[in-house]
Each structure stands twice: as structure tokens, then as C-alpha cells.
Design a protein that fits this description.
Length: 261
Amino acid sequence: MNIAERFDVALELVRDAGALAQSYFHKRGSLNITAKGLQDFVSQADLECELLIKSALSKTFPNDAFLGEETGATAFAPGQGIWVVDPIDGTQPFISGLSAWCISIAYVTDRTLHFGIVYAPERDELFTGGIGIPATLSGIPISGHPSKSLSEGILGIGYSPRLDTSQFIPLLAALLQSGATFYREGSGALALCYVAAGRLNGYIEQHINSWDCLGAIAVLRAAGLQTNDFLAGDGLSKGGHLIAGNAEIYTQLEGIYQNQP
């Protein structure tokens, strides 16, 4: 298994997919858009970008598996490498004409997250990082926020309509009572990368899918930050909660999360 070769291929692919997504973004008035659920949309751009990435990876690495938000998972065996892809994370901002969307690619074997790449074309920001791969933003090294308390800096928060509001409101109240102020980007992957870059001091979400976060988790960890073991259990296939930050912020967020009803 050549991780460096896979990283190089993914780096080229994420830019190709970004260019395709941008071409759709600038003519989004003519896009075919379908609702998958409450505040959950898919567009022609999502599908075409995923097919571009999936086809190229299948030709270059035919023995690797694939998990994408739009086309699902291919056959997958223990020990087999798998690509985890969100072709456009932040579809709602995308179709609304906002810049808060990105392409996310991660590579995993078993529970080892080797690397992640997150590219936001409209912001011209490319985040990379992984095991033995430094955390960078467009080639410049990045590191997390130095805050020791949730009251220092801005906290990234994710919310999914998959959860009832009665589950989310107590968490939000506890965070506000702790002194935190919050920011919601519309793309979990981008918000997590902003934690890696020190723009946000941490991140918490009660349920997020693997394709929405694994690319960014790799960048976060390469930046020396901490997350929960997202791939434990069935996180890859079913998702789970996510907490991220430096050691102090992570501990505070974990305590708040665990004390929720």
C-alpha cells in the first residue's frame, strides 16, 4: 500500500472535482435539485462530482473500496483500504449561493485514518493533513487555537435535523452557560478545518456522518488537536458524535456532552 501515491492522486482529484463543482455553482439556477429529507438536498453537481472522483479512484486503485454520500459503499472487506468522500459538503449553502461548501476526501484502513483533504474552491482554501503529513492550509502550516477555556474564542457547532430539537437545545444551553459563543458554518468539514487552523477553538456535534468529517479529522489530528475515536464501532457506516479541540477544550466539551440527558 502506497499512501504517498494515494495522497498525490487525491490531491489532484480534489482540485478536478472542485473545478467541476465551481462550474455548476456559477450556473446553479439551472441545477436539478432533489430533497432527500428535511434541510437535506442533493444536486446534479453533488452526483457528478462524486462520480468523477469515484471513477478515477476505481481506475487507479481498483483494489480499494469506496464510500460516498451520494452513491453509497462498494463491497468492503476487513483490512481493505476505503476512500470516504463527500463531493459537496454544504449542499444547502452551495445551492443558496454561499461559499461555505467544500469537497472532502479521506483514506482509511480498518480504524486507521491515513489522511484527509478538504478543498473549498470559492474560498480558494485547501486543507491537508494525515499520519506523517503536516497539517497545512494551501501549503502553509497550521495549528489550533491556544484557548484554555470555552469562553476564549469561538466554538464551532454542528446540528442535523436527524436529531430532535429536544436533544439539541439542552446542549446549546449548556454551552452558552459555560461561556461559549458559537458559529455554524453550514459545512461540518470546513468548520472542523477552521478548528485545525485556529480560527475556531473547538467543535461539537451530536451526530455527523463519516463523509462529512473524516477528511477534516485527519487535518485536525495532524495539527496536534484531539478528537473522540469517531471510527470506533460503526462510525464509518452510521456516523456518530464528534468533539474536537486542544486538550483543555476537548475535556470541557466532553464533560458537557456526557452530562446531557
